[in-house]
Hints:
- It is found in: Cytoplasm.
- One of its GO terms (molecular function) is pyrroline-5-carboxylate reductase activity.
- This protein is of the alpha/beta class.
- The protein has 2 domains: 4-164, 3-Layer(aba) Sandwich (Rossmann fold), CATH 3.40.50.720; 174-245, Orthogonal Bundle (ProC C-terminal domain-like fold), CATH 1.10.3730.10.
- It has 12 helices and 8 strands.
- The protein has helices at 11-22, 39-49, 57-63, 76-81, 101-108, 140-151, 164-172, 174-191, 196-216, 221-228, 234-244, 247-277, and strands spanning 4-7, 31-34, 52-53, 66-69, 91-94, 114-118, 128-134, 154-158.
- Helix 5 (101-108) packs parallel to helix 12 (247-277), helix 7 packs across helix 12 (247-277) and helix 8 crosses helix 9 (196-216).
- It is elongated.
- Bound molecules: 1,4-dihydronicotinamide adenine dinucleotide (NAI) and (2S)-3,4-dihydro-2H-pyrrole-2-carboxylic acid (A1CAB).
- The site of 1,4-dihydronicotinamide adenine dinucleotide has 26 residues, from helix 1 and helix 4.
- 1,4-dihydronicotinamide adenine dinucleotide binds next to helix 1 and helix 4.
Amino acid sequence: MNKIGVIGAGSMAEAIVSGLIKGKLMAPDQIIISNRSNSERLFELETAYGVKVTHDKKEVIEQSSIILLAMKPKDVEAGINSIKDYVTNQLIISVLAGVSIATISQIFEKDLPVVRAMPNTSASIGKSATAIAANNKVTADNLQACKTLFEAIGSCTVVKEAQLDAVTGLSGSGPAYLYYFVESLEKAAEEVGLEGQIARELILQTIAGAAEMLTTSGKHASVLRKEVTSPNGTTEAGLTMLKDKNFEEAVISCVKRATERSEELKEMFAKTVINTTK
Ligand SMILES: NC(=O)C1=CN([C@@H]2O[C@H](COP(=O)(O)OP(=O)(O)OC[C@H]3O[C@@H](n4cnc5c(N)ncnc54)[C@H](O)[C@@H]3O)[C@@H](O)[C@H]2O)C=CC1
Ligand SMILES: O=C(O)[C@@H]1CCC=N1
């Protein structure tokens, strides 16, 4: 029976585990979770999902055919070092932002099959936009299994590893951009005289409706935008302000800078690992 061993028991691990169980992709007893030291957190996950939990890393690895790395990037070395002696040829899946497959393999000191994934926080409600990339040790069957696994928490696209920084800058960080946009709309609503709850309802339904139009109408965003925009009307007046304030340029700079930051972090982790494994 395929079992998944999860190293790291934070919010991303919980989102994936709950998706796997809710989507009936795995039974709770096929999932075994470990973290650094927080027993209370492990007990919480055991109680909520019926999964196995343990501090014994050897037990996690020996029971698992897939190992999910879900600690923070800064903890990657300590995390991998605590399991590497027990790893034989299991499939490694990492959700760590900005940690390359090469860096992961270097810490393991083994050429293992590694899949890097970039989900986003909407994984917790089964709506993540995830992209995955694999090294050449990953079989087509294993890649498909990973795709299915991430489809339990939303959508999943296979990309080249070199594209994962861009994915991180676009959809990994993306929910935060949209939340920031909503915060701005809330401030704007207040300034035009719409109080809290009323504004919130209008904003959320507008976003949900627009998202559904984008996914179901088959029309490009620019076409949908033009359908809202009457000549000399209110939308045109509003959009003119966004153009005047360089909205498009700000958004492009935002995604580019986040992508660049992902590249920087990747370099930084790679250098740290080279220095400590020398
Ligand atoms: N938050 C986000 O939007 C996204 C996060 N990610 C990635 O997901 C990963 C996890 O993020 P969160 O769940 O938000 O973090 P978190 O801080 O909630 O959880 C991290 C977990 O790792 C455990 N841990 C730390 N050191 C460990 C060690 N040496 N051995 C075993 N476990 C250890 C901690 O005990 C904790 O349970 C990060 O690497 C992040 O880059 C990926 C995509 C999006
Ligand atoms: O901000 C970050 O670095 C992580 C990666 C994608 C979302 N959160």
